Amino acid sequence: MEARREFSVLGKPLPRVDSYDKVAGKAAYVDDMALPNMLYGKILRSPHAHARIKRIDTSDAKRLPGVKAVITGMDLPEKKYGTDPRYADEYALCRDKVRYIGDDVAAVAAVDEETAEAALDLIQVEYEILEGLFDVHTAREQGKPQIHEGKENNISNEIHLNAGDVEKAFNEAEYVREDTFRSQPTAHAPLEPHAVLARWDENGKLTVWANKQIPFYVRRLLAHTLAIPESHVRVIKPYIGGGFGGKGEMFALDVCASFLSKMTGRPVKIVYTREESLICTRRRHEMTITLKTAMKKDGVILGVTGQLLSESGAYNSTGPLATYLATTFLNLPYKIPAVKMDSYLIYTNLPPAGPQRGHGVLQMRYAADCHLDLISTDLQIDPLEIRLKNTVHKGYRTANNMNVKSCGVTECLKQAAEKIHWKEKKGKMPPYCGIGVAAMGYLSGCNLVPHTGASAIVHVHEDGGVSLLTGAAEIGQGSDTYLSQIVAEEMGVFLEDVSVISGDTVVTPYDPGTFGSRVATMSGNAAKGAGCDAMKQLMEVVADEMECNVEDLRAAERKIFVKGSPQKSMTFRKALRAYMYRDLPMPIVGRGFYQAPIEVPNWNTAENDPAATYSFGAQIAVVKVDPETGKVYLQEMVNAHDVGIVINPLAVEGQLQGSIHMGTGHVLTEEVIMKDGLVMNPNLLEYKIPSPFEMPIVHGIVVESESDGVGPYGAKECGEGTEVSTLPAIVNAIYDATGIMFKDLPVTPEKVLRALKNKEKGDASL
User: Fold this and answer.
1) What does the pLDDT read at residue 633?
2) Is 726 buried (19+), middle (13-18) or exposed (0-12) by CB count in 10 A?
3) If you count DSSP H runs as helices and E runs as strands, how many of each does the chain have, helices first?
4) How many Å apart are CA 7 and CA 77, to the nearest integer?
C-alpha cells in the first residue's frame, strides 16, 4: 500500500502544456497538413443496406483527367480485420457484399477533391439487392438472411454470466420487479472529422499522419491489411479535435490512402466529410436491457436476472467488448449476491457501432439505476437510502469476482446529498420539478488483450531539461500535461522543465493508447517508473557526493536534499555536472513499464477483473419540466467522484464537465435516427448536441479515497465514469418531477408531452 505524501507538482491546477498552441491557432491537425505532390482521396459508398456486389467497372473513372488511381476490394490483400482477431469480420473495401448504407466499395486518388468526387460518379457497380435487417428482434428471427455467413440468427457473440445462487435469491425474495429499458444509438460528433495523410516511400516504408487514439493498434492493423511488416509502418498522431472513442480504430480511409500512395508514388490525403464521419465510422451501441430483481422489503438486493440485446450494426468493431463491459458492470456499484445475465451481440444492416465514452457500461447503468428508482418507489424507501444500503466497499468481491481495492462510493453519495440538500428537497419540490440520484463504478485502466502494458522513456538533458517519450495519445483529455506532472514530481523538477513527445510509433515506446480510462493509471505508472529509473542513476552519484544513503535523498523544486535536513542539498544541474564529470554513460535515460497485476478476464462468462482498480462516483440532478412544451431543463448537477488522488484539478474539472455535457445530450436530445438503414440526421444541424448554454450549474466534489497501490500515487480515472451516472441521475429526476419513468431514450419533448397526456388519461404505458 503506497502511503500518501506531500506533493510539489501534483495536485496543482496547472494549465495544459499544449494550451498556447491551441489558443494561438498554431496546433496542426491532419487537414492542416500538406506534402509536395499530394493527391486527394475519396471513397465510393454503398447506396444499399444489404446487397451482393456482382460487378464493379472503374474504367470510366480511371480515364478522367486528373485521376491517378482507382482501387476496389479486389486490389487489396484479402485480409479481414477487427479490434480483436477473434472477431475480425471487415474488409477495408467490400469484396463480396455490402452490409449497410455507406459501406466502403471503392476509392480514388486525384489531383484535387473535386476531381476525386467526379470520379466516384463514374464508377459503375452492379448489385443484387438482399433483404435488410434493421433491428435486433427481426435479425434474430429464424429464416432471416445471415449478414455474415455462419452466424446463426445473426448472433455475433454471446455472454452468459451466472454467479451466486440465483434460485435461492428469488425463493427468498419478499419483492420482485422486472423492467425493460432501451438506450439509443448516439454519435461521437467530434469537431474534427476523421482524416489521414499517407506517404509510401521508395524504400517500402509507410508513414501515416492520422487522428488516432490508439496509434500502435492502428499500426498493427495497417501492417496486417496491407501485408507488410509492422516495422515498416509509422503512425504519427498530430493534434486531435475530439475523439471520445470514435477515433480509436482503423477505418477504410487509412488503408485506402496508404494503398493509393503505394500505387501512385505520391502522398494521399483523405478527410471524411461531416456526413461520412457521422455515418461511416462508428456510433454508440443501441442496447435493450431487461432486468428482474429480487429484494428484501427493507431494500436489500438479493439477486438479479436479465437479458441484454446489443445491436452491433454491420460489423463487430468493439461490440464484443461493449457487451462484455455492460454485463460485467451490472455488478458495480451495488452489492448483488447472485446474478444471471444472458447477453447477445446481434448483427444488423445498420452502420457499425463501436466504442464511445463509458463503453457499454453507460447503457447498463442507465437501466439498472432507473430500475432501482422504480423499486424504491414500490417499497417506499428513499432512493438515496436504498443506494446507501447496497453500496460496495473496500475489500468487497462481487459475485462475478471483481475485487474492489479502494472505494469512495458511499462518501460520494453522502457528500453529493449534503451539497444539494437532498433531505430538504426530496418530496418537497414544486410541481414538475424533480431531483434524482445515481451512482456508478467504472474501470480505471482497461486490462484486455492485447492492450495490457504501457511503456515510457525519460531522457535527461545536460542542462537539466527532461524529455518524456510516451506512446499515450493526447486527444484533448490532458494526458501530455498530467504525465509530465508525474515525471516532474518524481524527478523534483518543475513542469516547464519537462517536454513531452507522444503518439509516434517510431519515436515513442509502446503504449496501448487512449481508451478504457487507462492512461492515468497505466501510462502514468510507466511515466512514474521512467522518472524513478532516471533519478536512481543520478542519486547514486549525489549520495556519494553528499556522503549519505540513497534512501535518504529526496528531490523537489530543482533540488536534491537529505530528508529531514533540507539545508543539505544540491541543485539538479549541479548533480548533473557531478554525474558528467565521472564519465558515466550519457545521457541519463530512464525506462518505465507497467502491466496491471491481474489476469485477463473471461469474456464468455464476464467473470474476474477487467481492471486492476475501479473509480466510483455519484450524481444528483435537479430538473424542471415544462408541461406545456414537454421540454426538460437540467438546472443543477452535483457530481462527486472518487479519483483516488488528484493529479491536476483543472484536468479533473474539465473531464467531469465534459462527461456531464455528453451525458445530458444522450438523455435529452441526441439520437442517430435511422429509417430502413438510412441515417436521417447526418449533420450537426439535425443531430442535436446540447449547446454550452444548456449546461446546468455543476457542483463538483472530488473524493480522494485511500490509495490501493495501483495507479500512480493512487490516482484513478475521471474521464468516463461520470457520464455513466449522468444518464440515470437525470432520468430519475424527470421521474421525480412527472411520476413517469422514461425507459426509452432520449427523453424528447414529444415523448414527455405524449407521456403526460397518457398519464392524464390513466394510461401508464410509454
Assistant:
1) 98
2) buried
3) 19, 28
4) 53
Between the CA atoms of 518, 519, 525 and 528, what dihedral angle is there, to the nearest 10 degrees?
A: -170
Encoded amino acid at 48, one letter: H
Q: How far is CA 755 from the centre of its chain?
A: 33
The domains found in the chain, sorted by start residue, are 33-130+191-242+247-279 (3.90.1170.50), 365-445+607-760 (3.30.365.10), 453-497+508-595 (3.30.365.10)
Cell 444499399 belongs to: 48
| Whole-angstrom distance, CA of residue 637 vs CA of residue 622 | 6
Q: Are 147 and 50 in contact (CB under 8 A)?
A: yes
Whether 525 contacts 444, CB under 8 Å? no
Check if the beta carbon of residue 314 is closer than 8 Å to that of residue 352: yes
Q: How far apart are CA 345 and CA 136, in angstroms?
A: 9
Q: Which amino acid would we find at residue 644? A: G
- Return d(Cα 711, Cα 713) in angstroms, integer: 6
CA angle, residues 296, 297, 303, in degrees to nearest 5: 25
Instruction: Give me the residues paired with residue 619 across strands.
Output: 438, 639
HSE (CB half, 13 Å, CA atoms) of 164? 22
Residue 2 pLDDT: 45
Residues of the chain predicted below pLDDT 70 = 1-4, 448-451, 763-766
Q: How much is the pLDDT for 4?
A: 55
Phi and psi at 593, nearest 5°, equal -145, 140
Enter the pTM of the model: 0.97
Distance between CA atoms of residues 150 and 462, nearest Å: 62
User: Is 516 in a helix, a strand, or coil?
Assistant: coil
d(CA 227, CA 175): 59
The helix (H) or strand (E) run that includes residue 199 is: strand 195-200
CA distance readout (Å), 454 to 443, 528, 593: 17, 11, 6
